[in-house]
Amino acid sequence: MPIKDLGKTVSASLNLEKVAGQVVDKLTGWLITTIKMLPNLVLGITIIIIFWILSAHAARLADRLIVRFSGHRHIARLLSRLTTLAVIGLGLILALDALNLDKAVASMLAGIGILGIALGFAGKDLFADFIAGIVLHFEHPFRLGDRVQTLQKSATPAGWKSGEIVGYVDSIKWRCTIIRGRRGERYTIPNKDILGNPVVNYYISGERRVDLYFGIDYTPDLQQAEDLALEAVRALDPPLRNPDRPVEFFYEEVKDTTFIFRIRFWTNDPDQLVYLKARSEAIKAINQTFLSQGITMPSAVVTLDLGVEGGKSLREQLEGVKLSFSAPREEEAGKSKEARKE
Question: How far apart are CA 66 and CA 79, in angstroms?
Answer without folding.
Answer: 8
